[in-house]
Write a structure and sequence with these properties.
By secondary structure, this protein is α+β, with helices and mostly antiparallel strands. The chain has 10 helices and 2 strands; from the N terminus they run E-H-H-H-H-H-E-H-H-H-H-H.
Length: 225
């Protein structure tokens, strides 16, 4: 199965430093203004950092904006709409930002006579961001067997990096792209792309990926290339 003529897959991992931006919101208009102004990484952080808390699995993945709108401002209907934004539909973080803006602006326009609630003192929304440091791991795969083995060994941060950040328009090695070319495993690549990583814990996601590769390795070994 090993072909030295194939381009190897290098597993990377990442580490974040989280910091406050010094920008707060006490009501919906403040929140909207902040979403429009903050750096892209702030939008990314507030919509994705829960995914790294892999011990937990929510039926509907939350985001910080939806949580604050629902539980602090008590705007339940808007909070539900913000929580229901399907991140899989968006190819870039900027598209996520625009969708959040659209949802909040539509709500404000439909309720233009509403007196905006202010968050209780001490429960304002604090915009945060992240600085990401990326570095290669020692794991490199040139075929499916090595790829399967390394999926078991790399950290969950590495799984997160190649699955989630690769989906959002960043120049990051993507599992499915490598499987499709140079390995020519197009069907396996399709199976990877069909997965919904937002509804699983990171460890469950790892095990699902391993199982898909394992099944394909068995097919090849039993003469079904």
């Amino acid at each position: 199965m090993i072909s030295l003529n194939k381009e190897p897959f290098r597993f990377y991992t990442r580490q974040n430093i989280i910091y406050l931006l010094g920008k707060n919101a006490k009501n919906l208009r403040d929140l909207l203004s902040g979403i429009k102004a903050v750096p892209t990484m702030s939008i990314y952080y507030h919509t994705h950092h829960y995914l790294e808390m892999h011990e937990y699995l929510s039926p509907e993945p939350p985001n910080d904006f939806a949580y604050w709108i629902t539980n602090i401002l008590l705007e339940k209907s808007l909070g539900e709409e913000a929580a229901s934004i399907d991140l899989r539909q968006f190819a870039t973080i900027e598209e996520i930002r625009l969708r959040l803006i659209e949802v909040i602006e539509s709500y404000l326009e439909a309720n233009d006579e509403m007196i905006l609630r202010d968050a209780p003192q001490g429960q304002e929304f604090h915009f945060m961001s992240a600085r990401t440091f990326v570095f290669p791991t020692k794991y490199t795969a040139v075929d499916l067997k090595q790829f399967q083995k390394h999926l078991k060994n790399v950290s969950l941060q590495s799984i997160y990096y190649h699955v989630f950040e690769a989906r959002l328009g960043k120049k990051i090695p993507d599992f499915a792209t490598w499987l499709s070319s140079p390995l020519n495993e197009t069907e396996l690549a399709r199976e990877f792309r069909r997965l919904d990583p937002y509804t699983q814990t990171l460890e469950n996601l790892r095990q699902t990926l391993i199982k898909l590769v394992e099944n394909r390795v068995k097919e090849i070994e039993y003469g079904n290339p």
